[in-house]
Design goal:
- The protein is α/β, with parallel strands linked by helices.
- Helix 2 crosses helix 3 (about 75-85).
- The strands form two sheets. It has a six-stranded mixed beta sheet with strand order 1-2-10-7-8-9, with helices on both faces. Strands 5-4-3-6 form a four-stranded parallel beta sheet, sandwiched between helices.
- It has two domains: about 20-45 and about 145-304, 3-Layer(aba) Sandwich (Rossmann fold); about 45-135, Rossmann fold.
- Helix content is about 45%, strand content about 15%.
- The chain binds pyridoxal-5'-phosphate (PLP).
- The site of pyridoxal-5'-phosphate has 18 residues, from helix 3, helix 7 and helix 10.
- Pyridoxal-5'-phosphate binds near residues 73, 175, 252, 255 and 281.
Length: about 300
C-alpha cells in the first residue's frame, strides 16, 4: 500500500475496493449481479476517492483551506482527509442537518457553516465564501478533480471483471456516474450507465433531490453510454437495503437505490443481459438513526 501520493497527500486507501458476486440478490432477481463495495473506503463511502484528488490539487496549488457544500458523506470524508493532511475544512450545510451527521463532521475537525434554506441556498453561500476568502473550492459542479477521483472505480471494475454490460449508480449530482464512465473510457469497456435516483425521498437522504450539479458531465456520460435515469420509491429502497443486509452488506439506503432501480429496470425495460454491477456507495454504520429506522422494519417483517 502506498502511504503517500506523489503530491504528498496521505493516501489512507487500500485499492481496489472489492467487487463481489451477490449470491442472495442474484438468486432473487434471477440474474448474475455483482456489487462494487465502495462502502469499504476509509470513511465508508466513495467520497474518499474524490477527497484524495481534491486535497492533492489543493496542496499542489498551495491552499491551506478548502470548502464544500454537503450534508453528509462528502463532508465527512473531506473533513477526515483534511484533518490527516493538516488542512482547514469549511463545510456548508443546511440548518436542518441531522445531529448525527453534524457530529461526525465536527469530530473530524470540519468547521460547520449552517445556512438557512435548501441545498441551493447553501451552495450559493459556499461559493460566495470561496470567492470572498480565496479558499479552495471543493464543490460538486465546480471541481473536475472529483470526477477524476471516481474514474478509478471504472478502471478497477475492468481489471476485476472485464467488460460489464450494465452499471447501476446511485446518483444525485452526477459526479460519481460521470467519473465512473470516464474510467471506463480509458479502457475498451462500454457498459450502459444507469442513474439510480431518489428525487423525492425520506430514507435516501444522501441522494435526495437529484440535484444534478455536475449536469453536463452526467448528461454526456448517459448519452455516450446509452444510459437512462430511473428513480425508486422509499419502499423499494428500504426493501433493497434489507436484501443487501442478507449478503452481509449494511449499506445506507441511498446506496441501496442501485439495487431498487435494477429491479425496476427488470420490470419496465427488461432483464439486463451480461455482467451487471450495482455500486454500493456508502455504509450505514455511520448513521445509527438510519440503522434503527431501516432495521426496525426488518425485525417487524421477521416476526410476522
Ligand atoms: C452514499 C452516496 N451514494 C451516491 C451519491 C451520489 O453521488 P453524486 O452526487 O456524485 O451523484 C452520494 C452523494 O452524496 C452518496 O453520498
Amino acid at each position: 500500500m502506498q502511504l503517500r501520493t506523489e503530491q504528498g497527500v496521505e493516501n489512507m486507501i487500500t485499492y481496489p475496493t472489492p467487487l463481489v458476486k451477490l449470491d442472495v440478490v442474484s438468486q432473487i432477481v434471477g440474474m448474475e449481479v455483482y456489487g462494487k463495495l465502495e462502502c469499504t473506503n476509509p470513511t465508508g463511502s466513495h467520497k474518499d476517492r474524490e477527497s484524495l484528488k481534491v486535497l492533492e490539487d489543493a496542496k499542489l496549488k498551495g491552499f491551506r483551506e478548502v470548502a464544500i457544500t454537503s450534508t453528509g458523506n462528502a463532508a465527512i470524508s473531506l473533513a477526515a482527509y483534511s484533518l490527516v493532511n493538516g488542512v482547514r475544512c469549511h463545510v456548508f450545510v443546511p440548518e436542518s442537518v441531522s445531529e448525527e451527521k453534524a457530529r461526525l463532521i465536527v469530530s473530524f475537525g470540519g468547521e460547520l457553516h449552517k445556512v438557512r434554506g435548501g441545498l441551493k441556498e447553501v451552495y450559493a453561500e459556499c461559493v460566495e465564501f470561496v470567492e470572498r476568502n480565496g479558499v479552495y473550492d471543493a464543490n460538486p459542479g465546480r471541481n473536475l478533480k472529483k470526477i477524476e477521483g471516481d474514474s478509478a472505480i471504472g478502471a478497477e471494475i475492468v481489471t476485476q471483471i472485464g467488460n460489464p454490460s450494465y452499471v447501476f449508480v446511485p446518483t444525485n449530482n452526477g459526479t460519481l456516474l460521470a467519473g465512473v464512465w470516464s474510467g471506463f473510457k480509458r479502457t475498451k469497456a462500454r457498459p450502459r450507465m444507469i442513474a439510480a435516483t431518489a428525487p423525492v425521498t425520506e430514507v435516501a437522504d444522501s441522494i435526495a433531490g437529484y440535484s444534478r450539479l455536475d449536469e453536463e458531465a452526467l448528461d454526456e456520460a448517459l448519452e455516450e453510454s446509452g444510459g437512462i435515469v430511473l428513480s425508486a420509491s422509499d419502499k423499494d429502497i428500504v426493501e433493497a437495503a434489507i436484501l443487501l443486509s442478507k449478503e452481509g452488506i449494511f449499506c445506507e439506503p441511498a446506496s441501496a437505490t442501485s439495487l431498487a432501480v435494477l429491479k425496476r429496470f427488470q420490470t419496465e425495460v427488461g432483464k439486463p443481459q451480461g455482467p451487471t454491477i450495482i455500486l454500493i456507495t456508502g455504509t450505514i454504520m455511520k448513521y445509527p438513526t438510519r440503522i434503527m429506522n431501516i432495521f426496525h422494519r426488518f425485525s417487524q417483517n421477521y416476526s410476522s
